[in-house]
Amino acid sequence: MKISLQNWERARRLLEETPVADLHLDLPGELLMRHCMEEKNVIRTRYLPAWRRSGISLIGAVVYVESRYLPEAGLRNALLQIGALKRELSGLSGEIHLVRCREDLERACQKESVGIFLYLEGLDALGEDVTLLSLFHELGVTGASLTWSRRNLLACGCCSASQNKRKDGGITEAGMRMVGEMRRLGMFLDISHLNDEGMERMLTETELPILATHSNARNVRFHYRNLTDAQIAMLAQRGGVIGLNACSYLAGSYGNGRHLEWLVRQAEYLIRQAGDCHTALGLDLCRGYDLARRGLEAEEGQGDDCLAGYDELVLLAAALLEDGTEPETVSRLFGGNAFAFLQKALPCQKKV
Predict the structure, then answer these.
(1) Backbone angles phi, psi at 114, to 5 degrees
(2) What is the 3-state secondary structure of 232-267?
(3) Cα(287)–Cα(252) distance, integer angstroms
(4) Labelling 165: which of 11, 149, 172, 329 has CA 20 to 30 A away?
(5) Do residues 14 and 327 make contact, with C-beta atoms less than 8 angstroms apart?
(6) How far apart are CA 209 and CA 341, in angstroms?
(7) Are 128 and 75 spatial neighbours (Cβ–Cβ below 8 Å)?
(8) In the chain, what are the domain boundaries?
(9) What is the pTM of this model?
């Protein structure tokens, strides 16, 4: 896409003024893998400079347990990931803080320091044991999805980004008990990886704050990981938000290289269908995680991500402005709506 210098400058100013939020980053898992390679200060060296340049004020750090650790080592791996994140945060006092309540969120919104809120991408590591959920909540976990793209004892996922094969099966009774415990603890529910049957039940039968942290529109790119128009509308009616996913498989640009064009197309469609108060960023930038998994420091290219890192957020904002999206709408997409959702979903203050 061609972008005028005027819109580039408008985008740069918008990111300076907006508290930018990304609802989905597989950060704890990457930290654990890099710590195991004896790398230190990963956030400070690999992420914080780009977050500052792009106006990032809030990151959703998700604990994702790979299938190779399940079932026996899943719980251990999840706890080790949280430990890795907390070790990093201990050396970043005053620059980054853990968000557990609305007071913590306000600090991030005011750009006092970058806020990180922690949640679980799938509860596979817990099995059916609802009592374990309170342990994770005490460690700072604010929400969860019932499952990743696989089937577990609680629910059935849809499919991974590199696949597009429908999976059937809904929420189990154990899954409903877990949802009840999440409600008791005051947690939010992420439905991004649920299949259609499970998603419909969660949207119609639960009273939890619900969002889809990293999903796109199925009508733009037909993929079972993306949301139907009906799901988008229902989620918006529930007061939820949908995080724009920058995975090329889900945006529609895999294999054609027109990443920015398809990402803009997805964003504008979500805004039209859900309204400009129900869209956010859930970028799911996986390049760092993938490199860590392969034991690499760096590698040319951006893998399957539509953006080559957080520094390209200004490019996305400029492209949206170039295409006629109003600056106020871009600001809501880039942070305003995520902060508004979490302001309602998180507790008023930390328990003493």
Answers:
(1) -75, 130
(2) HHHHHHCCCCEEECCEHHHHCCCCCCCHHHHHHHHH
(3) 18
(4) 172
(5) yes
(6) 8
(7) no
(8) 5-345
(9) 0.97
CA 317 to chain centre: 18
Selection from 46, 61, 48 nearest residue 100 by Cα: 61
pLDDT at 167: 87
pLDDT confidence of residue 222: 97
Beta strands in the chain (DSSP E): 20-25, 56-63, 96-98, 114-121, 141-145, 188-190, 210-211, 242-244, 279-281
Q: State the fold for domain 5-345.
A: TIM Barrel (3.20.20)
Q: Are 162 and 114 in contact (CB under 8 A)?
A: no
Question: Is the Cα torsion angle 327, 329, 330, 332 positive or negative in sign?
Answer: positive
The length of the chain in residues reads: 352
pLDDT band for position 326 (cuts 50, 70, 90): very high
Among candidate residues 160, 174, 123, the one with its CA nearest the CA of residue 145:
123
Which amino acid does the sequence have at 238?
Answer: R
Concatenated DSSP letters of 184-245: HHT-EEE-TTB-HHHHHHHHHH--S-EEBTT--BTTTS--TTSBPHHHHHHHHHTT--EEEP
